[in-house]
Amino acid sequence: MTHIRSMITKLTLIAAFGFTVLFSNSSFSQDGKALFSQNCASCHAVNKQLTGPALAGVEDRWPDKAMLYSWIKNNQQVIKSGYPYAVNLYNSFNKTAMNLFPALTDKDIDAILGYIKTEAANANAPKTPAPGGAAQGAAAESGDNTLLFGILTLILAIVAFVLLQVNANLKKLAADKEGVPALEPVPVWRNKVYIMFGTLVLFLIGGYYTTMGLIGLGRQQNYEPAQPIFYSHKVHAGINQINCLYCHGGAQDSKHANIPSVNVCMNCHMAINEYAGEQLYTAEGKEVNGTEEIKKLYSYAGYEPGKPWDASKAKPIAWTKIHNLPDHVYFNHSQHVMVGKVQCQTCHGEITKMDEVKQFAELSMGWCINCHRTTKVQFADNGFYSIYEKYHEDLKNGVRDSITVENIGGTECQKCHY
């Protein structure tokens, strides 16, 4: 009997250990993905070049892994040291300065590099059709193992439950054989221990999903609504290289970037009444007739080709707003664009490659705070920061090599909240 109990105890411990390992691995992977999204995704992708180089195989490209870690934390210091690979990399990207990440620990960097390896491996793996259909194939290609971990956890829970039942029955059989009076095993639905355990599990699961739901309340990352007119930023800002500020002039002068009026659109489309570019597609893969979309613009403008246009007949286009911040949050476009020299792509993603615009960044408080903690302020030739005499002296004397937004109060509550 003692031997049987020992076996059951060992099996239970093994199941618990497996449960812990599965979830610790999942947590580590998720941490790497979250850290990559918060710190790297605005300038880097795993398998393609953006503002910075593609990160797939980054560990293999650096001769010294310790220098890679130093580069991630403070690239300017590594460049000043004259490390050849770092200097060549800096020069090859037109001396574009990378943000500093002194807050990242070696463990954080390990998690990010692990996520990069996983994503690179998934991208290079052969794509085979999933037997369960396109939806399952997409899930498999995404590398999301949440369902697998959930199934394994459920199996382990069932095994543990069965072992407990076996243990109770063995105890009763042993007692009957020895002639010792034993109580009948309590049915599961009346066992207070099982009821308490089930209640606790439901409470934890419910609390987790409630908390995550509240954290995500009001966020709409990847929100991509259909607009009344199919306006392709890829065609206008990408292929035709129309400056963002031509249509969104408020971004450099005021708090709001502004949506252009019909008049701005008609500046070009009085002359351009046909679309002859590459085929356009919606997010669902449906073909779009560009010329017909221009005709929709004409209907809003009250314009008939070949006739003089009376601008007073124009009516506003009911564009669907994509980026929304809570009412208690203050954000000023001009301060970021003109003073902070922040590129549009930092917050809006590769807008020049988007047909239908979606919300690229999560725009959460944590996302903004992290940016303020790591983004360097451009002090040189920037009169806006002339009042920070101490920091200018520190930079001049080599006490500091850079100033972040956090240093000038960028994480103070009243900066962003009324």
Low-confidence stretches: 19-29, 128-143
- Overall mean pLDDT: 83
* Backbone shape: extended
Helical fraction equals: 40-55%
Please report which band the strand proportion falls in: under 5%, 5-15%, 15-25%, 25-35%, 35-45% or over 45%: under 5%
Give the count of helical stretches: 19
What structural class do the secondary elements suggest? Answer: mainly alpha
Q: How do the helices and strands follow one another from N- to C-terminus?
A: HHHHHHHHHHHHHEEHHHHHH
Number of strands: 2
Strand order, biggest sheet?
1-2
How far do the termini sit from each other?
69 Å
User: What's the gyration radius in Å?
Assistant: 29 Å
Let me know the largest β-sheet.
2 strands, antiparallel
Description:
By secondary structure, the chain is mostly helical. It is 52% helix and 1% strand. It has 19 helices and two strands. Strands 1-2 form a two-stranded antiparallel ribbon. α1 (2-39) packs across α6, α1 (2-39) runs antiparallel to α8 (146-177) and α13 crosses α14 (290-301).
